[in-house]
Amino acid sequence: MEKAMPDAYEPTDRTVPTRAKERAAYDREQVHSILDEAYVCHLGFVRDGAPVVLPTLYARVDDHLYLHGSTGSRPLRMAGEPDPGLAVCLTVTHVDGLVLARSAFHHSINYRSVVVHGTAHPVTDPDEKRTALDALVDHVIPGRSLDSRPANPKELAATAVLRLDLTEVSAKLRTGGPNDDPEDATLPYWTGVVPVTTHRGTPIPAADLDESIGVPAYLTRS
User: Fold this and answer.
1) Which residues pair with 162 in a beta bridge?
2) Domains of the chain with CATH codes
3) β-strand partners of 55
4) Cis (ω within 30 of 0) for the bond into 17?
5) CA 9, CA 120: separation in Å to the nearest integer?
6) What is the predicted pLDDT for the residue at 6?
7) Model's pTM, two decimal places?
8) Which H, E and C letters describe 11-65, residue by residue?
């Protein structure tokens, strides 16, 4: 019988924040929802003794994150030599609101974020690699992998994929309004929250698209 996954990730020294600990969360479903809603992550690693942070696309499949790039890119090469595996820290952040307080000190943002620590490993199994690449396409536009030409052998050979297991993971969130000091309550300044949202616009066809090809249904669903 397959072992059921726990409902939450186990906190570690690296995933427990030193400030605002009450905003930390380890619920698996909540972590996954934050990851699944974003498009871009920031991947941090050490190169030649100095920190490097790169923005990149990613996709989640169960308890694994997949990232891809050229076989010649530095982090993807570093993950495979001399010993497979690259120590990384990956982050994802959503900004949900601008929090305007009466004092400049208490201005803030409402946000949802995830931080993942671990070792990224190169994916060498052909089936896992194809699954990962399909997931990367579908993460951006669900359903798109079945409505586009799959990678051919040459493209697959030129593409490297990394897998980062979701083991050492935490979420951190801020919600609600400003936290003004009581003595500032009567100051004559507007205070509140300005919501921030992300939405998709109307699809714009390519200049050379055949006019007989309509907009796919997966692009018109809200």
Assistant:
1) 67, 122
2) 21-181 (2.30.110.10)
3) 42
4) no
5) 18
6) 80
7) 0.89
8) CCCCCCCCCCHHHEECEHHHHHHHHHHCCEEEEEEEECCEEEEEEEECEEECCEE
